Amino acid sequence: MRKNCLLLIALLPLYTVAQGLYDIDNITTIDLTFEETNWDEIMDDYYEADLDERLVGTIVINGEFYDSVGVKYKGNSTYSPDNLKNPLNIKIDHILDQKFQGYTTFKLSNGDKDPSFVREVLGYEIGRNYMDLPLANYAKVTINGDYYGLFTSVESINDDYQERRLFVDDDNVRIKCNPQSVMDGSSLKYLGSDTTNYYDYYELKSDLGWEELADFTYELAYNTETIEEHLDLDRAIWMLAYNNVMVNLDSYSGPFRQNYYMIQDDDDRFMALIWDLNQSMGSFSMVDGGGGMGGPPSLDDLIEMELFLREGDSEYPLIANLFAVPRYKKMYLAHLKTIAEEFIETGDYYARAEELQDVIATEVAAEPNGFFTPAEFESNLDDAVGGGPGPGSVYGLSQVMDPRMDYYQSLPEWSYIAPTISDISPSTESPTAYADIFITATIEGASYAYLGYRDRLQERFTKVEMLDDGLHGDGAAGDGVYGAMATLSAKDVQYYIYADNDNAGKFSPVRAEHEYYHLAVTAPVVINEMMARNTETVTDQDDEYDDWLELYNTTDADIDLSGYYLSDRPNAEPLMWSFPEGTTIAANDYLIVWLDEDSLQEGLHANFKLSVSGETVSFTGADGFELSRVTMPEMYSSTTYGRYPNATGPYIRMFPTFDATNSYTALSLPEDLESNVVLSIYPNPAYERLIIDWQEEATPFMIYNSQGALIHQGQLTNLSELNVADWVAGMYILILPEHHYSDKFIVQH
């Protein structure tokens, strides 16, 4: 897996980006200072009192100072008053209204369950290829000038996370599924309509939610046929598949049914999110050979953990009731095979573990309060520390994961032949708003197929059966080409295809619904570019560096925007700001709106600003129909989020092209912001030939030189070989526009 890079085109002004809080290939530095010399004793007292009391101090994060932060110890099994290094929970906004790079809460784990010190960070990184999971990296902490230790730092799942990562309202129901006082866990069993029955099993993190939880568990228990109305099914299946592949038994799949969140999206469906991966990859010891409480398990118990663990077990309704539906079970198997084949069979998990250990090896060796020796740290990739699961002992990563792949491959289910899906094609590559189009594909070996499509992130995919009957844009009946009709809005389309037979299912792309194909819809006026951190690009008429948004008129006629709307709260308040009467956008031209909350200024100044930590903005017509919705990720100075190609393509990070045609000249992609793409370029530097290893569906690619000139373009399929013998020596940039992805390589002679 490639390491992070910052891509810059030489002809553009260079800029520097501060280290990201969760930059996975760099260690965050956190320096805490308390006036109290007995700070450890005080925080022990706070923990024992079970109060949300925090010790107030100052913090310096990667060189930036903040006053009046609140700190407390956290954790269950990882906390002890006898520990020399306890897990930390830091709130930067404890007293003052302040954030660091958009974050308010930092959760630091002490690594006392993992000699390798990579399981948690690696687990989240792998999981983010298939689900929306928190970011994680490492943090070096000093307290009152003394090195306290190395921690894993994991993004907090809070109301900010809901808006920033899940793009749902921050007031939506959020439930932490970590029982504090019962041993039978957050099972999602229906316990009756009396919401007090649920109090001991779940922790409510939102203002409301108990009734919603009770209603959901009822639906899960009694109405599985309509469960997709109440559950983000695909996320749940990815979670269960991931837990199985990664032998993650400190989870819903384990004896305590814990360490996950349930969060409602804006369609009132619950999303399941994994939490706490420090004992993944076979290191959880409180489980016997059958997956129940007891233990510790033998190595063979972990390697040969059942493929459909908990199937038919009424104590695990999320598993038992979903697996009772044959199609859902086939979807689970498809997702599980994708994870196992991409990261375990290839050995990528191990190679990445080595890279992560390289990042932190020096700090581990200098640990004053570590739980394991540097030798144990290094050896636990391959060898057991202490002989295996149990207090202070953990099997090596490769001891569990490599033979687990062999176990999978020995099962008859692994040999089931899934359908093949190829030649996916929309009936038009440039559809217009509100049209009906057909999407077709050649599908072999299937008895059923459907098209899933939607027009905005986090909306539920509409599922339409694909047919080979000659009536759905599919050509002749029975020719192996399947088709389905999609009804468009004015927004771009995201879509995927699923097909199955009696034994197995297949997704295309294989990481659906987390990944999907993109089809640009030509709307009359589109949001073309946005800038959230304008520090030097352009000023408004009062010489102020404000946020801005650019609209583009795709038609050959002027359009009156009187009574159209912009909003950064499209679900709650879609008509937030109205364009003044008489506002027009010229044919094939641009219009800038300043997002600065300053309605007293002349011109177009909206009553909201953009958040650098991520934002969703909508553009709505005078008739109340939403024309465009853009979900912008976390941004950095001097970069924008715009469409490439101009007005029609997907949104990507780029340098500003204010009031002008968007050009793909540069892109900043730190690890925590990039799309989930697994691609290898080698040799790098290249001398005569370059190999691009791409194992997904065919996708367009472009290669630019350091001056921004297009050198090569084509279709990327599997192993692509390029002859670069005649190329000028220097840096080149590979771009996959449909995946919002870029990488760099060097040509030398």
Explain this structure.
With 749 residues, this protein is an alpha+beta fold. The chain has five domains: 5-155, no CATH class; 167-356 and 375-408; 420-519, Sandwich (Immunoglobulin-like); 525-666, Sandwich (Immunoglobulin-like); 679-747, Sandwich (Immunoglobulin-like), CATH 2.60.40. The chain has eleven helices and 42 strands. The radius of gyration is 26 Å and the shape is globular. The two termini are 26 Å apart.
Concise summary:
The protein contains eleven helices and 42 strands. The protein has 749 residues and is an alpha+beta fold. Strand 11 and strand 12 form a beta hairpin.
What labels describe this entry?
749 residues, disordered N terminus, Immunoglobulin-like, six-stranded mixed beta sheet, seven-stranded mixed β-barrel, 42 strands, alpha+beta, globular
